[in-house]
Specification:
The protein has 543 residues and is α/β, with parallel strands linked by helices. The protein contains 21 helices and 18 strands. The chain folds into 3 domains: 3-82, no CATH class; 86-344, Aldolase class I (TIM Barrel, Alpha-Beta Barrel); 352-476, no CATH class.
């Protein structure tokens, strides 16, 4: 019975008519397992049946008028309506991207959010973003071809990470996305809008019979209101004029751009792995939703911006909390790194299964090292956070490698780099000669810049060592991780998902969504003053 049918049945009776559950008593579940089965039958309403001596649940009956002379009528029957995992979130978000579920697998750099993960989630009715950050254009291009071949009609996205010290990489990524018609990107780690991200957005604009046609969609991941406001507003005249002067967009496109926001969707990133401000979701999400509402009133967009939630989401309870606060969709990150499809080593995946909520800390970020930006990493089983912090302290204290005292320099060479700093510099020159030669030119004129690049050698390779599972470098593994990983491990303890080899990204996603739908139905009963036991309130994982 659908919700509409159920309401119609109620309306068939005169107001005040006592309602009685009509069905066979043999179909009433009184035991815990049976009642859980009723709640998990998402397609059917779930009635609470109280016969004065015991209480049970049933899916198979319907409500009808109480009849019979001298019989005591039932009280109005509490009920939770049909509610599927696909009913969670904002329908407009799902429709816009062709999704069945409001679930987005966020990008993890260096291809940890691999092509295989994007494909697996796309085929499951979810969406994921390929982790392009830190990769050279050739590797991004390879991933585009692989994903587009496997998902000709299903949804997918590619990451565009803000690279303030390597802007050419950002520009080249945009050029690839436009070349291959990648129509959805996830913009992350932005401190301010860049010409590159705006160019991607505006290059997809045209005037159609029904108004402005927007071909290129942006899902911006943010944690600060001032950055969110820029993505929620039309692009500035300054950037538009720059793009026009460079011949990248037309005057017509610049005019159209004044009527749409830079991003279609905003992912509010709270206490996540990687780049994060460690802000609590319960404070940040309502604040950004309120900002969205203010800007919608101001700009009157034909298609309102949707707001999703990320950071700390890894269980049915945390997913439901995000939806209850108004999130249009949820984004996960840390838990996906421990899945089979993740582009990281088995050693890392095994280590992630042992993580507790408190086993994470902040450490310097390689891509924004000079700015003092930090990211959240795993501290259990690795010394990377401590060693990375030590490098930043030295960077702040001295103006060049030559100023570092010999004893301190020797310690760095033996413990961290495991080779001389001269050798590290030669490898750095070789690396940036292919990736971004301008970095070497800047270092030649600035000794402190040279020191930063040498230190970034360690910070950059530490994530590579973890991704590749390099033996002998375990204590230097940089593993991006938030407290959500610990919460997930607690939830799946004792189940088949406790083992790393059983964790697939799509299965994890659907289990979280099923659990959130189950708890939604439990809460519907609680809202009718029905006491639900703790055992019945818990969603049990089922393979």
């Amino acid at each position: 019975m659908t919700m509409k049918q159920y309401i119609k049945n109620l309306n068939d009776y005169p107001k005040g008519t006592p309602q009685k559950w009509q069905g066979e008593s043999s179909r009433i579940a009184y035991d815990l397992e049976g009642m859980k089965h009723c709640l998990e039958n998402f397609q059917s309403p779930c009635f609470v049946i109280d016969d004065q001596t015991k209480t049970g649940l049933s899916n198979d009956g319907y409500l009808g008028a109480s009849s019979g002379k001298g019989t005591k009528p039932y009280q109005p029957i509490p009920c939770c309506f049909p509610f599927l995992p696909s009913d969670l979130g904002d329908p407009a978000f799902k429709t816009s991207y062709g999704l069945r579920y409001p679930y987005f697998g966020g990008s993890m750099a260096n291809g940890i959010s691999s092509a295989e993960m994007v494909i697996a989630l796309g085929k499951a009715g979810c969406m994921a973003s390929f982790g392009s950050g830190g990769l050279i254009p050739a590797n991004i291009e390879k991933a585009i071809r692989q994903i587009q071949s496997a998902l000709p009609t299903e949804p997918y996205a590619f990451n565009l990470i803000h690279s303030p010290f390597e802007p050419e990489l950002e520009k080249k990524a945009v050029e690839l996305y436009l070349k291959y018609n990648v129509n959805v990107i996830e913009a992350s780690a932005y401190i301010d809008l860049t010409a590159a991200v705006v160019y991607y957005r505006i290059a997809g604009l045209s005037r159609g019979s029904n108004g402005i046609e927007v071909r290129n969609k942006i899902i911006a991941k943010i944690s600060r209101k001032e950055v969110a406001e820029k993505f929620m507003s039309p692009p500035s005249d300054k950037i538009l004029n720059q793009l026009i002067s460079e011949g990248l967009i037309s005057q017509e496109q610049a005019t159209l751009a004044q009527n749409i926001p830079v991003a279609d969707d905003i992912t509010v990133e709270a206490d996540s792995g990687g780049h994060t401000d460690n802000r609590p979701l319960v404070s940040l999400l309502p604040s950004i939703i309120s900002l969205r509402d203010q800007l919608q009133t101001k700009f009157q967009y034909l298609t309102p911006i949707r707001v999703g939630a990320a950071g700390g989401i890894s269980t049915p309870e945390s997913a439901l909390a995000a939806f209850a606060m108004g999130a249009a969709y949820i984004m996960t990150g840390s838990i996906n790194q421990g899945c089979l499809e993740a582009g990281t080593s088995d050693r890392v995946k095994k280590l992630l299964t042992q993580v507790d909520i408190a086993d994470v800390t902040m450490a310097p970020a390689s891509d924004m090292f000079e700015m003092g930006v930090k990211l959240q990493t795993l501290k259990k089983g690795t010394l990377f956070p401590m060693r990375g912090t030590k490098l930043y302290e030295i960077y702040q204290k001295y103006q060049s490698i030559d100023e570092i005292p010999p004893t301190e320099k020797l310690k760095l060479e033996k413990q961290l780099f495991q080779k001389s700093l001269d050798e590290v510099w030669q490898e750095t020159v070789s690396f940036f000669s292919q990736r971004d030669p301008t970095q070497i030119n800047k270092a030649a004129q600035n000794p402190k810049k040279k020191m930063a690049l040498i230190f970034r050698w360690y910070l950059g390779l530490s994530s590579f060592w973890a991704k590749s599972g390099v033996s002998g470098r375990e204590m230097d593994y940089q593993i991006w991780c938030g407290p959500a990983m610990g919460a997930f491990n607690e939830w799946v303890k004792g189940s088949y998902l406790e083992q790393a080899e059983n964790r697939s990204a799509a299965d994890v996603a659907l289990q979280i969504l099923r659990g959130a739908a189950y708890l939604t139905r439990v809460n519907l009963l609680k809202a009718q003053s029905i006491w639900v036991s703790p055992e019945l309130s818990r969603y049990d994982l089922k393979k």
